[in-house]
Design brief:
Layout lengths: L1 H44 L4 H28 L3 H7 L1 H20 L3 H8 L5 H25 L9 H20 L13 H12 L9 H4 L2 H16 L1 H11 L6 H11 L4 H29 L10 H16 L20 H16 L1 H8 L1 H9 L7 H24 L10 H15 L14 H13 L12 H16 L4 E3 L2 E3 L1 H28 L5 H12 L14 H16 L1 H8 L19
Antiparallel strand pairs: 1-2
Helix pairs in contact: 1-2, 1-6, 2-3, 2-6, 5-6, 6-11, 7-8, 7-10, 7-12, 7-25, 8-10, 8-24, 10-14, 11-13, 12-13, 13-14, 13-15, 13-16, 14-15, 15-19, 16-18, 18-19, 18-20, 20-23, 21-22, 22-23, 22-24, 23-24
């Protein structure tokens, strides 16, 4: 009876104190998460003497102990403890892994993780052990953040507004990180305007740079830039929602609506199902691309004999290509002496760019397992109309750009090349010009007609729901067909056996007019602040920024602060989408259930 009475008292205590204990624990975990981030940033962002490093490591281990204790408390106070553990297996596994390491020291007299590192011939164990603990704590913080992300829809904001704010938050965090002293090779912190420009360029997957990315930043800086264009490429909301699904926390209708608007999906069910496939497609394509790049680096590359550097170069450029970011860890991009003849590598990067620019809805329609099985069972089933537009418009623009570039630069930058080399260079520049920003030739050496061709291709950009920018291929196709329809005197716009509504057409014209007007205004102010620079170079720079391409004729580092601010706003507005921004800022119309008499106006 004594044991039974004790058990009842314990259960009664748990029941009576559950709510206040868990509420206090939640606040403490939030504070601990903030402390983790602060210690992590201070540890890696600033230089430290050994004694300070030891202090920071001690604080990190103490926070780790708190998280272990808090998890145990939550298990105890759960109504069904084993069910709670099963629902948080990921967090439980991380804790068990490190608890095993601690227990091994007390019971067997050796450190299991240290022994593992020694077996891998890693003698300097301490930095890796510290990084392991810090990574674990960051994962826990990430879990806390994803739990918070599921409550985003409760905030009374439009989905477009939430998307815009999420990008603003990413830009501010990126700017702060790049300003840390350990991120650059220069003394002190990176100037705010340059850090902001770089963060915006990375998060908006543009690729324009006011400093030499290869030499100005340290490995830590390069890693921050990589994370920025990875998150910016597929969307920070997509990442947050995916991990919320992964943790089985559920996603509400309002949250799904945000993802639907962002991904241009036609139903909430499709938008929710696409989230998993976005991450799977992204990681799979980037992994395959990184593996191929690792095999294709030229033996004359300065990092060829360094396995770790080769892996990072491969991963960085694969992600940069798929996200259409255009950032490179080489001073002249891919226009390096040891890479100019690596044409197979150029083709691999070009293919990665194409995949990234097609758009996730199109990739899901083409490569989704269910869709492939459905087409095998019913061969007459076709791709969605939006997919066909994305594929065939991209194919037509690539061929058009390749042929025109080949003809214009036959005696220019292509002079002295073989037919195969001319073909690959023309193909690569046609692909990358529309949105990616890599270059295998000197952009400043191109002729004026070629520069105008590039402006045209940059303005059109990639497909809807992709990592690229521009007005999008679907917008261009609808406007082009509208012109043809008007000339032919037809009353309705038809495409692929379907009628196109005037609402869609109005959106396309809105995007076109807004984009063209903004580019014109941006060019006007650039010309005012940079009177000594060529107007062609300024137009090229403005279109490249607004359409998040990243190609430049070499004037970016020489721009004044006002001009940099103009390009920063252009990159941001171009990335979040002109239509998204317009809808977020527009006031809601109370009623549209009325019609005025028709007017007849002279046009042309």
């Amino acid at each position: 009876m004594g044991l039974l009475a004790t058990r009842e008292k314990i259960l009664l205590f748990v029941y009576q104190n559950k709510e206040p204990v868990l509420r206090a624990l939640s606040w403490l975990r939030t504070l601990a998460s903030l402390l983790v981030l602060t210690v992590f940033l201070y540890y890696y962002g600033f230089p430290h003497p050994p004694e300070r490093l030891n202090l920071l490591v001690g604080i990190t281990k103490s926070i780790f102990g708190f998280f272990v204790l808090s998890y145990v408390i939550r298990v105890i106070f759960a109504i069904h403890s084993w069910q709670y553990i099963r629902n948080s297996l990921f967090e439980a596994a991380l804790i068990v892994l490190l608890l095993f390491d601690i227990i091994s020291v007390f019971l067997f007299g050796f450190n299991a993780l240290e022994n593992l590192f020694l077996r891998l011939n890693i003698e300097n164990f301490t930095p890796f052990y510290i990084l392991f603990i810090q990574s674990y704590l960051l994962l826990l913080v990430g879990l806390e953040v994803t739990k918070v992300s599921t409550s985003i829809p409760s905030i009374k904001l439009k989905p477009a507004t939430t998307f815009i704010y999420s990008f603003l938050l990413l830009l501010l965090i990126g700017t702060g990180l790049l300003m840390l002293p350990e991120m650059t090779t220069a003394k002190g912190s990176m100037p705010f305007i340059d850090a902001l420009f770089t963060a915006v360029s990375a998060a908006c997957v543009t690729g324009l740079a006011v400093v030499d990315t290869a030499t100005y930043f340290t490995f830590k800086g390069h890693l921050v830039i990589l994370l920025l264009f990875q998150l910016g490429g597929i969307g920070i909301l997509t990442f947050a929602t995916f991990f919320a699904l992964f943790l089985k926390k559920g996603v509400g209708i309002s949250h799904q609506a945000m993802i639907r608007d962002f991904m241009s999906e036609d139903s909430l069910f499709n938008a929710k199902g696409m989230l998993r496939q976005i991450v799977v497609f992204t990681l799979l394509i980037e992994s395959i691309g990184a593996f191929l790049l690792y095999l294709l680096w030229d033996v004359n590359a300065p990092f060829y004999d360094d396995t770790g550097e080769m892996i990072f170069q491969s991963v960085f450029h694969a992600i940069s290509a798929f996200c259409n970011a255009g950032f490179s860890l080489m001073s002249n991009g891919l226009n390096q002496d040891y890479l100019q003849n690596a044409y197979i590598l150029h083709i691999v990067i070009g293919v990665l760019i194409i995949f990234g620019s097609l758009g996730f809805p199109a990739m899901r329609d083409i490569f989704g397992i269910k869709n492939i099985r459905a087409r095998m069972a019913a061969p007459w089933k076709r791709w969605k109309l939006s997919t066909r537009i994305a594929v065939w418009a991209s194919f037509a623009l690539i061929i058009f750009g390749m042929v025109v570039f080949y003809l214009l630069e036959y005696n220019g930058v292509l002079a002295g090349k073989s037919s195969f080399e001319r073909f690959v260079i023309a193909f690569f520049q046609s692909v990358t010009t529309r949105t990616a920003g890599f270059n295998t030739v000197a952009i400043g050496a191109l002729s004026t007609p070629t520069a105008i061709l590039f402006i045209f291709l940059m303005f059109i950009g990639a497909s809807s729901g992709s990592t690229g920018g521009g007005i999008k291929t679907s917008t261009f196709v609808l406007i082009f067909l509208s012109v043809i329809t008007t000339i032919r005197g037809k009353k309705s716009l038809e495409l692929g056996g379907r009628s196109i509504s005037f609402d869609l057409l109005n959106k396309a014209f809105t995007i076109f007019i807004f984009s063209a007007t903004y580019i014109l205004m941006g060019t006007f102010f650039l010309a005012y602040f940079e009177p000594k620079m060529s107007v062609l170079d300024l137009v090229f720079e403005q279109v490249s920024a607004f359409c998040t391409v990243g190609l430049t004729r070499g004037i970016t580092p020489d721009l004044s602060t006002p001009s940099k601010l103009i390009l920063i706003s252009s990159m941001y507005i171009g990335r979040v989408g002109t239509l998204t921004l317009a809808f977020a800022l527009a006031s809601r119309v109370d009623s549209t259930n009325y019609r005025y008499p028709k007017a007849h106006i002279l046009v042309g």
